[in-house]
Design a protein that fits this description.
With 179 residues, the protein is an alpha+beta fold. The protein folds into two domains: 99 residues, Ribosomal protein S16 (S16 Ribosomal Protein, Chain: A), CATH 3.30.1320.10; 41 residues. 54% of the residues lie in helices and 17% in strands. It is built from four helices and five strands. A five-stranded mixed β-sheet has the order 4-3-2-1-5. Strand 1 and strand 2 form a beta hairpin. The longest helix is centred in the last third of the chain and has 49 residues. The protein starts with a strand and ends with a helix. One of its GO terms (molecular function) is structural constituent of ribosome. This is Small ribosomal subunit protein bS16. Belongs to the bacterial ribosomal protein bS16 family.
Amino acid sequence: MAVKIRLKKMGRSHRPFFRVCAMDVRSPRDGRVIEELGTYDPMVPETDARAILNGERISYWLGVGAQPSPKVGTLIKKYGAEGSHLEAQAEAIGRLGDRRASAIESARAAASSVKMPDVTKPSEDPAPAEGEATADAPKAEGEEAKTDDAAPAAEEAKAEAPAAEDKPAEAATEEKKAE
């Protein structure tokens, strides 16, 4: 099987992103890959941070006869296992990481200033705090009192209902006797 190391286009229109892949020569540009070997993002502002390659695996594929495409060949010369721009790449990735870290921190600060309501499941909090326990206790007692008041009233209603049913039956029997 003839293998090429080439770019597989990802991303979207006007925002390309590529994966460096080992692919069969006959497969289409964005087709099935044998192995993904790295990424190439031409939109990254730091030129040396655009390509991130797995040099060990690229060396393996080159060793078994895979042919790189012209663009991938240039990337391998610069950022491969023995690339000429590896130190510059490490510095650029560090600078880019610092920018991203500061952007993430500022986003977190902005998010923390906006207070979102805390929605938690009751099962997540196994033991309520002391203030919550005292606040819930009167409510619970009030609910018990309501159910205690409702229970005798319900029992009285049940007791009266059969008695009311018995009276019409007795009246009906008395009427039959009178006839």
